[in-house]
Design goal:
Layout: H1 11-29, H2 34-57, E1 62-66, E2 74-78, H3 80-101, H4 105-109, H5 126-145, H6 149-158, H7 161-168, H8 173-204, H9 211-218, H10 221-242, H11 250-257, H12 260-282, H13 294-316, H14 322-338, H15 346-372, E3 373-374, H16 396-399, H17 401-415, H18 421-436, H19 440-465, E4 474-475, H20 479-497, H21 500-506
């Protein structure tokens, strides 16, 4: 059978993939043209994001690669939720490219003490760096819309493996440790995902991730049991990439080992890709949310989400390195993303999507602000009072409001406190499906995790408001960093003032 092909429908995944190839080919002909590579990346990511936004605003899902020309046999399906996830992943990659473009000159030349290699922000091989970012963006957009196991698995790994290489490209000892830890996790998760894919094929007899495949397997008790195990194993594989406990150990090392733009890619695009992968597996199961077999899937999701949300917040409370704090925050926020999915409902899918987008946007803004801060004093940026220490941010909101203001707003959004109203709205959305499904204990876990999260972020905000001690922090904002801070802050303000701007795209009421 020859599948139909709509190139415009594939634009969110196809544009960055073609951009990655174009960058590498142009580098072979015109080597060393850093700004040309970055320009191509910006163009293809904007094209992909425009395609995703068009699909999100459309009344019907976008479908292509349809084997029989019918709606039920399409290998690529992008409804409103999928399109918004694609948009979030591509914008996260766009922010990464802008941060790479806006890297400070000393970041591009400074050497780590005793290691003789360039430090954060290094673009020693700009073509490879940009191509890897585009490849990860293509994988993230592709896995969200994939409705066939082979494509789903390849796209998910494409969204992950380039980030491992980007962490390692920094060339420091910390980067090597972070990349090795990340790579080990990626290989283990791939093995788990392959086992899950095999179980899905055994249970359903088809590689399609559709409701029809699930219905056929659910009608036979033996196949239903295999299907439940398959879903659980696939979710565990995605849990590695989402940084859920106990699959989270790689996260702090990878966050602190790589350059901050790569950390931004990890916190934004990679997390959106992992959530999209989990939703692609769970969506066909929503029709059987009340069936007895589905309770096992819900129990696994509830356990992973609860432990992640609580442990992430508790450990983040003890962190003095702000990047490591954000790494543990990511683990806690991953628990929040997965909490509503235990309800196995359509509203839970929309709630998880809204939450991961709000989290990703706020974390990208926070990391952009961290990238702009340099510590004052004799110890320099990597000393005990370095720019990644909380103490380096003391009084930043008063001394440098154009950087401290966006950072404070991002932290308040993550905490769910005014004026970061969109963060509070996202948390309410997460809890609502649990209450509707009668899962009150899980909702209570969410409330406790929210209180702990407030302590994590308010602690940082209090430092921003404090009186500076010693030499003040130095702030250097490159052009790309300024764009990320400005646009990100505007989006946080707009969605806090009018949450329906996001919720309307997801089909949620206000």
């Amino acid at each position: 059978m020859t599948p139909s092909l709509d190139l415009l429908a594939l634009a969110p995944a196809l544009a960055p993939a073609l951009g990655a190839v174009a960058v590498l080919l142009l580098d072979a002909v015109l080597p060393g043209r850093r700004r040309l590579h970055v320009g191509i990346a910006l163009v293809v990511l904007v094209v992909g994001a425009a395609g995703a936004l068009t699909a999100a605003l459309g009344e019907a899902p976008t479908r292509t690669l349809c084997l029989l020309g019918g709606a039920g046999q399409c290998l690529y399906v992008a409804d409103g939720v999928v399109a918004i996830l694609q948009l979030g992943a591509l914008l996260g990659a766009l922010a990464t490219v802008l941060l790479l473009l806006g890297g400070r000159a000393d970041d591009l030349t400074r050497e780590d003490a005793g290691q003789g290699v360039a430090a954060a922000g290094d673009l020693r091989d700009p073509a490879v760096t940009v191509a890897l970012v585009l490849a990860a963006a293509a994988g993230a957009a592709g896995v969200a819309a994939a409705r066939e196991l082979g494509t789903w698995l390849v796209m998910l790994e494409l969204a992950t493996l380039p980030v491992v290489a980007l962490v390692a490209l920094r060339g420091t000892r910390a980067a090597a440790h972070g990349a090795l830890s990340f790579l080990t996790t990626v290989l283990l998760s791939f093995a788990v995902l392959v086992v899950g894919a095999g179980l899905w094929l055994v249970a359903t007899g088809t590689p399609l991730l559709t409701g029809e495949a699930v219905s056929a397997a659910w009608a036979v008790p033996e196949r239903r049991a295999v299907l439940v195990v398959a879903v659980v194993v696939l979710l565990v594989g995605a849990g590695f990439k989402l940084s859920l406990v106990p699959f989270h150990a790689w996260t702090p090392q990878a966050f602190t080992g790589g350059p901050l733009p790569v950390t931004t890619l990890l916190a934004g695009t990679s997390k959106v890709a992992a959530v999209a992968a989990a939703l692609a597996v769970l969506a066909p199961l929503s029709a059987f949310a009340r069936a007895p077999g589905a309770s096992a899937v819900a129990a696994v999701l509830a356990a992973l989400a609860s432990v992640s949300a609580l442990l992430g917040a508790l450990v983040a409370l003890r962190q003095d390195d702000v990047v490591r704090l954000l790494a543990w925050s990511t683990i806690g926020q991953a628990g929040w993303v997965v909490l509503p999915l235990a309800a196995l409902s359509g509203s839970a899918r929309r709630a998880a999507t809204a939450y991961v987008l709000v989290y990703a946007l706020a974390t990208v803004v926070a990391l952009a602000a961290v990238a702009a801060v340099r510590a004052g004093g004799p110890d320099g940026p990597d000393g005990p009072d370095g720019s990644r220490r909380l103490v380096a941010h003391t009084g930043l909101l008063r001394a440098q409001p154009l950087v401290g203001g966006p950072l404070a707003l991002a932290l308040l959004v993550l905490a769910g406190l005014p004026p970061g109203i969109i963060g509070l709205v996202a948390k309410v959305l997460v809890l609502r499906p649990l209450v509707d499904a009668g899962r009150w204990p899980l909702a209570l876990v969410g409330v406790v995790a929210a209180v702990l999260g407030v302590a994590v972020y308010v602690r940082w905000v209090a430092v921003l408001l404090g009186a500076p001690r010693g030499a003040p922090a130095q702030v250097r904002v490159g052009g790309g960093t300024a764009v990320v801070l400005g646009v990100g802050t505007v989006l946080l303000v707009l969605t806090s003032v009018a949450p329906q701007l996001l919720l309307g795209l997801l089909g949620e009421g206000t």
